[in-house]
Fold:
Amino acid sequence: MTQIAGTGTLPAAAVPRGARHSRPRDSRSSRSPAKSILLHGTLIIASLIAIGPIVWVLLSSLKPGYAIQSSDLTLIKDPTLANYRYVLGETSFLRWFGNSVVVAAFTMAVGIFFSATTGYALSRFNFPGRRPLMMVFLVTQMFPVAILIVPIYTIMANLGLINALPSLIIANLTIAVPFCAWMLKGYFDSIPTSLDEAASIDGCGPFGTFWRVVLPLARPAIAVTAFYSFLTAWGEVAYASAFIQEDRKFTLAYGLQQFVPQFNPQWEYLTAAAVLVTIPAGIVFFFAQRHLVSGLTAGGTKG
Structure:
């Protein structure tokens, strides 16, 4: 029996079926077998397309040179670690690796600092030139790197930084900081300003509020910023090829070109070096992955 206000009681059979069983329908149970097979088949094919080249490079790095250049298509043939031993022991790979670590680490650290402070200032303060500055950051993302090489090279030459690693750090910051500042500005907009007001009542100044209150809440966005800044410097080639002239100062991305000369490409060494190059980026991604999704989504919207 069901009690209806003002009308007494009605038998349970008189109650509409939808009112008694108002549960949301499971979309998976309503999907037909054909649609389910099509969906999963599409996902499997997309996954194979995504990981296929990576697996192929990994398997190729374990093949001798004649097996890679052979016309026979084989996944595994005479596997060996000689390619890795040659790259690590007979080339300048470790020196290039150290140069890349220095450039990427400084780019990431300095980029996080400038991007976070700039994004916080754009989010919280209304100062003269705020909107033009935001437009400048946006416009700089429209220029390809090839157009910027000549003016940046001229600036670095006047500063005496040609053939020096600081030139790469500064050049990479021109790419990373504008984008990351925009993204962090959007994330800071989603943090209530009442927290800033409460911190100021407790005696915190603007920098204290930023460092002690806002920055800990922005860890997902900071992780995305760090990952983007690291990858920007780790895989950059154009600036390295223009600014660096000595073999001992090459970065990894530019040094890999030494394995592909014009008339005798050494694909077995190139694939082994390519696998080693991806390891640091994978480590950084492993530590930042739990913050990447929330940081990207929250930084892309306001409020």
Notes: The CA atoms of residues 104 and 230 lie 5 Å apart.
